[in-house]
């Protein structure tokens, strides 16, 4: 990819996504489940750009949404409403109402209280709500504590006993239709066994439910497949699918999975321009025009993202790549080897297609970056750079 040309054309900081890679990743996962009915519901939160969603909708993907905003994005991008799931650990009444009115595939519940709210709202609307329940299988996903969700100590889902009570309640309700089970034990998972263990626990649970005539049709295994940022080993999609399917003997269910990172992380890079270099007694700093408001993963999780200086490779020495924000935590990479940089050089920050732009903000009154799609050698803008006027737009009229 001609990063220099892209940076010149669209300016920096700039997110660039390889749409062909996104397609390959989606199809790889979809094909791994060939033997069974399956639905890949892309986790919108990872990268919610409308053009990314449209690209995936065109390929036949469904969508996993965690706010009514994400549901609306998916619909706007042309998603099939019967392939949209609405999850999320706390949903507002108006979100539940809008989701019911949108007639999406199912609403994924996370607590008894939420189920009772949904029942009342469905009754008011004269509708029967298709639901699944997020079961917390108490399995350790062995990932970063901030993105591990399947342990009893986490706020997500309900334990299996509570889940069973909820399914029985839902079955007897005129306004609830329990059609799915769901688990999601964490993100950036690089070991297959916790996912298979959770699938086994849930499959057994589905058998119990079927025995009491609760007919579960969707078996949702969540997202979480890890990707390579540095030297991780990626879970093989065939092993992943086979491992899950091996637990489903005798069960006539559609397997649903909700990958976010797997599909988009390594499709994206962030291009940033070098402003200048700075040395103090201890360190070399390369100041760039992207900052933690553009990519918060290094600051928030101490996440590693590979970096590369475009067009130069000689005389590397160690440095920190830092942004212009007034916080010591504002860095994109620490102790990395880079050649001597000059103002205007372009640095590529890798593997940022997931939870990159999606988690960006306006801290320090910095407009958010532009986004570009590349496919078949062609590039096009898919989100304009935010201007100063965009950033202050919602405040301006209230200034006295
Ligand atoms: N399904 C549910 C219910 C989820 O909570 C998540 C992610 C996914 C699917 C998609 O997970 P993935 O396939 O992308 O791992 N901001 C963090 C990641 C947070 C993940 C939250 N939930 C990061 O930058 O690493």
Automatic annotation (TrEMBL):
InterPro entries noted in UniProt: Ala_racemase/Decarboxylase_C, DAP_deCOOHase_LysA, De-COase2_C, De-COase2_CS, De-COase2_N, De-COase2_pyr-phos_BS, Orn/DAP/Arg_de-COase, PLP-binding_barrel
Key words, A-Z: Amino-acid biosynthesis, Decarboxylase, Lyase, Lysine biosynthesis, Pyridoxal phosphate
PROSITE patterns per UniProt: ODR_DC_2_1, ODR_DC_2_2
Amino-acid biosynthesis keyword on record: yes
Ranges of residues in domain Orn/DAP/Arg decarboxylase 2 N-terminal: 22-265
Cofactors required: pyridoxal 5'-phosphate
Modification N6-(pyridoxal phosphate)lysine occurs at: 45
Annotated protein name in UniProt: Diaminopimelate decarboxylase
Species: Campylobacter suis
Record lineage: Bacteria, Pseudomonadati, Campylobacterota, Epsilonproteobacteria, Campylobacterales
GN (gene name): lysA
């Amino acid at each position: 990819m001609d990063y220099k040309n892209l940076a010149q054309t669209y300016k920096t900081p700039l997110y660039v996504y390889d749409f062909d890679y996104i397609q390959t990743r989606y199809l790889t996962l979809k094909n791994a489940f060939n033997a069974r009915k399956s639905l890949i519901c892309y986790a919108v939160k990872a990268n919610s750009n409308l053009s990314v969603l449209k690209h995936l909708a065109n390929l036949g993907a469904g969508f996993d949404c965690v706010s009514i905003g994400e549901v609306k994005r998916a619909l706007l991008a042309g998603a099939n409403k019967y392939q949209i799931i609405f999850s999320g650990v706390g949903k507002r009444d108006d979100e539940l109402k809008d989701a019911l009115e949108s007639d999406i595939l199912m609403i994924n519940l996370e607590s008894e209280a939420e189920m009772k709210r949904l029942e009342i709202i469905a009754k008011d609307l004269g509708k029967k709500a298709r639901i699944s329940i997020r079961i917390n299988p108490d399995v350790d996903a062995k990932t970063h504590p901030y993105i591990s969700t399947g342990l009893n100590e986490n706020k997500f889902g309900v334990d299996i006993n509570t889940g069973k009570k909820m399914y029985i309640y839902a079955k007897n309700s005129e306004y609830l239709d329990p059609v799915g089970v769901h688990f999601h034990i964490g993100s950036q998972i690089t070991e297959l066994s916790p996912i298979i263990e959770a699938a086994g626990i849930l499959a057994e649970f589905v058998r119990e439910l079927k025995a009491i005539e609760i007919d579960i049709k969707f078996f949702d295994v969540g997202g979480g497949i890890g990707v390579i940022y540095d030297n991780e080993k990626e879970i093989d999609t065939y092993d992943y699918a086979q491992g899950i399917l091996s637990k489903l003997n005798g069960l006539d269910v559609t397997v649903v999975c909700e990958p976010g990172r797997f599909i988009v992380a390594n499709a994206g890079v962030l291009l940033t321009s070098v402003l200048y270099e700075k040395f103090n007694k201890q360190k070399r700093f390369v100041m760039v025009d992207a900052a933690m408001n553009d990519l918060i993963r290094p600051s928030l999780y101490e996440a590693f993202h590979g970096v590369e200086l475009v067009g130069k490779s000689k005389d590397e020495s160690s440095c920190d790549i830092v942004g212009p924000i007034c916080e010591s935590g504002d860095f994109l990479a620490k102790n990395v080897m880079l050649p001597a940089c000059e103002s205007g050089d372009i640095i590529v920050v890798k593997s940022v297609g997931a939870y990159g732009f999606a988690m960006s903000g306006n801290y320090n009154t910095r407009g958010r970056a532009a986004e570009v799609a590349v496919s078949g050698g062609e590039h096009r803008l898919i989100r304009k750079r935010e201007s100063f006027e965009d950033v202050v737009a919602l405040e301006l009229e209230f200034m006295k």
